[in-house]
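Annotators were shown the component list below and the corresponding predicted structure, then asked to write short factual statements about the assembly.
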Amino acid sequence: MAVRLPEVSVAEIGVTAVHDAAEIAAPRWRRDLELWLPAGFLALLVGACFLWPLIDHSLPSPVGGQLQNANVPPLSRGALFGTDNLGNDIFSRILYGGRVSIEVGLGANLIGLCLGGYYGVFAAFKGGLIEATMMRILDMFLAFPALILAIVVSQFLGPSELHVIFAISFFSVPAFARIARAQTLRLREQTYVTAARLSGRKDRAILFGHVIPNVVPNLLTFGLLGIPIVIIVEAALSFLGYGVPPPGPSWGNMLAVGQSYLSSNPDLVIIPAAFLIATVLSLNLVGDAVRDRWASR
Amino acid sequence: MAILGRRGAEGNPPGQIPVHVRVEVLFYAAEVGGGPPAPARRLAGERGSWTLGGHRIVTSVTLGAPAASTPPRRNRLLHAFASSPSLRVIGRRLLTAIPVLFGVSFITFSLLNLLPGDAASSLLGLNATPQELKALRIRLNLNEPFFTRFGHWFGNVLSGHFGNSLASGQSVTSILGQRVPVSIELILFAFVLSVAFSIPVAVLAARHPRGFVDRCSILVSMAGLATPNFVLALLASLVFALHLRLVPVLGYVPLRQNFWENIHSMVLPAATIAFGLFCTYTRLLRADIVEQLVAEDYITTARAKGVHPWVILVRHALRNSMFGLLTLIGLNLGTLIGGTVIIEQIFALPGMGQELIQAINNRDVIVVEGVVLLIAVVIVLANLATDLLYAVLDPRIRYGRSTS
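Structure shown to annotators:
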């Protein structure tokens, strides 16, 4: 009757992982479609964001537009999506803003994966007081409202894309660390880890040879599901004015500008919103599909 | 009398090698006086062994010591605390929360200290002379070293004083008193809306999995989960406030001033927050109900007894799924508070989030600390409540069982 609260709180089970296990699987072509359609969109988007500006030299610059070209409606000559209140070409801003989103999304998750993953694995592997202390330190960051932490960090470092990545890493690292810890706790009890220990392998060797290779696939899936979240946070930070410095192209900046002209020119909001939603939706779909297919449970 | 424990110490998979599995049965003479009961006495000291599928099983029976007489209850509260496991757990969790809260306030203080500029420079603006700045810094105690200021502030907090705003001189408690009710109203309103809509939708969707309602709800949830709440706020105010003119775009009316106008001004921000929650809750509830309908025996029993499908859905399945929903609500509270910051900013609601951003911009350490500490306390309590609730509501989950 030992009554003890679980050391792992319910938070770690993963709220987003609402999974319909007990259902009849959808036909194969539909499952394929759910993976490859959004994946195709993402490939197109990434390709357009990174390659189009290199190929098409007539693409206007995303900043420094002329005021006499301001507020051109969409589908006009030379401006597919029109121009904003300062005369900048919206299509070009979407492409460069997409670059920012993708870079931040990947960057913050990579940092989280490497630092947080190692932190969590190390803590769980050591166990005892070291683990407890390390996890309490994480609790501090988790009890901190993420957005506020990001605002303070990005204000301290000064607004720039790289600093946004650092700021967001402050809470992607604890998230990865918790998942990695939970995974490691499970692995630590596995027979092959015990066998390795009994056969006299060093802790380091067990850590790198047996534990980490088994944690990484799960962290990768988690990271894939984390990219859309990071993209949203980046947009939110930029929207509030703490992300990419204002004239610079970012979907969040574009939405912030659009808010001021919501009644006169709603396109300024609708176009970046559509791209943001489509990107996040596709990433969610791809992440779910990948998890369902390849993640070990 | 109770069997205290069985220890299968040296268990191994069945194979050719005979192995020892020792099973110890302990009898415990407890409440009843007069020693262990007769069957236990007869068995005591008995050792038996037999072979079963390649295992050699050894049993031994030991008598437990009679329970020590309960000590006199000096302090009833203390006794209740020490003897109730869950109270002890709560106590321990609250104790571990103290260093976390201390750490949170220390990080906040140092982060704001690291930010360029201070309260004096942001109050006086760009045209201030060095003399004015110096005078104001002395007046606000900003010239003192960092640790002295933090120690001073923390000491005050321990004695229940949260200090005064550096910018306005107003006390933090009175600022929070004005701001917090707005945020609470927003969050409660959003919760009520989301739960009120997600329960019927989830039940209807689970009635026919892959049916029309189900497909629609999945589509809506997918779209909703992909839409950040600030984007939704912009789109919603574009449609409902600017085009349809159903609600005002901006402008907060206090609750005390006019109830209906207050609801009118809060409905759009609350609905924006609620939509995201609605999508999460609906997906969770629906998946949970469907899983029960397929897998659980009591559903099959009810079906076999001829209970009406709707009754099964609502009275059996939904009831059990509500536990999961409650957990999720508890867990969401933390992220939700963070999320209201941006919504309050967009709709110009005078809530906690708006105050926080303003205070960060003013480098008003004392106010920032007050808000952050409040949020941290709420998150810690919500996590604790969720963990406890989870164990209380679902008897299959025992505290001791940790991961996996």
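Statements collected:
1. The radius of gyration of chain A is 23 Å.
2. DSSP finds nine helices and no strands in chain A.
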